[in-house]
Amino acid sequence: MLQLPHQPLQVAAVPPQRAPAREDEAGPWHAEAVCRRDEAGLFFAPSKEPTAARLAREEAAKRVCARCPVMVECREHALLQPEPYGVWGGLTAAERRVVLARRRRREVELRKAAATERIAQAG
User: Fold this and answer.
1) How is it modified after translation (predicted)?
2) Is 25 annotated as a binding residue?
3) Is 1 a domain residue?
4) Alpha carbon of 14 to those of 6, 43, 68, 74: distances in Å?
5) For residues 44 and 51, what is the distance between their CA atoms, to the nearest angstrom?
6) Residue 27's pLDDT is what?
7) Is 35 annotated as a binding-site member?
8) Quick check: helix, strand or coil at residue 91?
9) Mean pLDDT across the chain, nearest whole number?
């Protein structure tokens, strides 16, 4: 762990959810989330958190996510919202931005390929 022994791990309160969660026949996905128990403060940065402490906290949060039964649903929620802060579905905000950028590029490529196909079929 990167945290220095003389620095206590600081955690922030979890911000309220900004949009209603999806529900299926079994209920809302977040009811099964491991982070709803006692580790919730790991997922959001306190103000002025030192880099080493942030990295250690994020790694601890990702370990919680790794054992969560609804990790995929949580990740998709964070990507669809999009959630600007915290660790969601095992990804940091920066990692989610990368995933979203890749998805946007893929969508553009698929649209171009479809347009090219339509032109070829019409011609």
Assistant:
1) Upon Fe-S cluster removal intramolecular disulfide bonds are formed. The Fe-S cluster can be nitrosylated by nitric oxide (NO).
2) no
3) no
4) 25, 8, 18, 15
5) 14
6) 61
7) yes
8) strand
9) 80
Domain count, the chain: 1
Say whether 22 counts as a known binding-site residue: no
The tens digit of pLDDT for each residue in 66-119 reads 999 999 999 999 999 888 899 999 999 999 999 999 999 999 999 999 989 888
Instruction: Give the Cα separation of 24 and 30 in Å (integer).
Output: 11
Asked if residue 8 belongs to a domain, the reply is no
pTM: predicted TM-score of the whole model, two decimal places: 0.69
Tokens at residue 105, please?
A: 């590029």
Long-range contacts of 21-30 (CB under 8 A, 24+ apart): 21/77, 22/73, 22/77, 29/70, 29/73, 29/74, 29/77, 30/70, 30/73, 30/74, 30/77
**Domain span at residue 108?**
25-122
Is 38 domain-assigned?
yes
Tell me if 101 is assigned to a ligand binding site.
no
